[in-house]
Amino acid sequence: MSFPPVTKLLQAKDDTPIYAEAIGDPSKPSIVLIHGTTLTAHIFDNLFSDSKLLETFYMVLRRGRSFTSLAGHGQTSIQGECSFYSIASTTVSVDICAPLDPLPISGVVQVAPLPYTGEAFIVRTGTPNVMAMIPGILLQDDVGLFKRTRLEFIDSMFLDPSKVPDSLKWSWIGLGLVESHDDGYFATYSPQNPAKFFEHGSRGLPLLCMYGTADKLMNGHVAAAEMQPHFPKMRIVRVEGGSHALFYDYQEEFVPIKVSI
Q: Which residues of 12-103 form beta strands (DSSP E)?
C-alpha cells in the first residue's frame, strides 16, 4: 500500500512555526527523523521511501526550514514540538528530556551521535578532521573558505564520496544553507545540561547508539562509552568500516536495525 506524504506547518506553544512532513500509516508507531547541524531532513529522503520502514513506522521529518528561536542561546520550542515525538535522535533528545516528565517519547536512537553539545564534549567526541572544519563552517567573512569547508564536510560524511552522485552532495550543501549562522553556532557550541537525559536513562529510557568505525567526523565509540553508564537499556551497534552517513552508505544494514528497535 502506498501512502502520500502529508505536509503541515505546526505551531509550538511559544508560537514558533514548525514545518514537518510525515508518511505512512499513522496507526503505526511513530519515528521522528532529526538531522544534525549544517544539514536538513532532505538527507533522509532515501529512508522516507523505504518500504521496510514504511511497513513498520509512521515516519515524520522535522524539516530544517522550520523557524528556530534563539532566546537564551538555545531553542525554546522543544516543549511545543514534543507532542508528536515517539523516538528522537541527536542532541534534541536532551532538550526534550530537560523540561518534560513523563516523557512523550518511547526511546531514543542516535546515529553517529553527538549526544549533547558543549565545547569540551565536542572536543572529546569529534575527530581532528571535524574540529579543523568547524571554524570554516561557521565563517561569515570568508566566502571562499566557507564554500570549501562545506564541500569537505559533505564529502567526509561518506565512505567513498567519489561514488556518491554530485547532484545529491550538492543538494545537501545547498539545502543546508537555510540554516543561519546563529543557528549553526548555537547548535554547535551552546552547552546543554544532560542531567535530565541521564536521569530518564537510569529510569529505563531505551537508547540505541549506532556508529561506524570509519566515521571521519565523530568518534562514535567515545560517545557510546559516555552514554553507557547512564542507560541500563542501551544497545550499541558498531558497524565495521561504516561511515558517518550510515543511513546512506549502509542502508541495507541500517534499515533492519531500525525496524528491530
A: 17-23, 30-33, 58-62, 87-88
81-114, pLDDT tens digit by residue? Answer: 443 334 445 678 888 888 888 888 888 999 998 8
Helix (H/G/I), strand (E/B), else coil: 83: helix
pLDDT, the chain, mean: 84
Q: What is the CATH number of domain 6-255?
A: 3.40.50.1820
Angle, CA of 217, 218 and 224, to the nearest 5°: 165
Domain extents in the chain: 6-255
DSSP string, 103-114: -S-SEEEEES--
The DSSP H or E segment spanning 239 is strand 234-239
Query: What are 216-228's pLDDT values in tens digits?
Result: 999 999 999 999 9
Q: Nine-digit cell at 256?
A: 533492519
Compute how many other C-beta atoms are within 10 angstroms of the C-beta atom of residue 46. Answer: 14
Kindly state the average pLDDT of the residues 131-142.
89
Exposed e or buried b per residue across 66-92, where buried means at least 16 C-beta atoms within 10 angstroms of its C-beta? bebeeeeebbbbbbbbbebbbbbbbbb
C-alpha cell at 205: 529510557
Q: What would the mean pLDDT of 211-217 be, rounded to a whole number? A: 96
Cα–Cα separations (whole angstroms), residue 26 to 19, 55, 60, 107, 194: 18, 11, 10, 18, 31
In the predicted model, what is the mean pLDDT of residues 58-71? 59
In order, the DSSP letters of 213-226 are TT-SSB-HHHHHHH
Instruction: Kindly state the cell numbers that stand for 90.
Output: 541527536
CA distance 110 to 116: 11
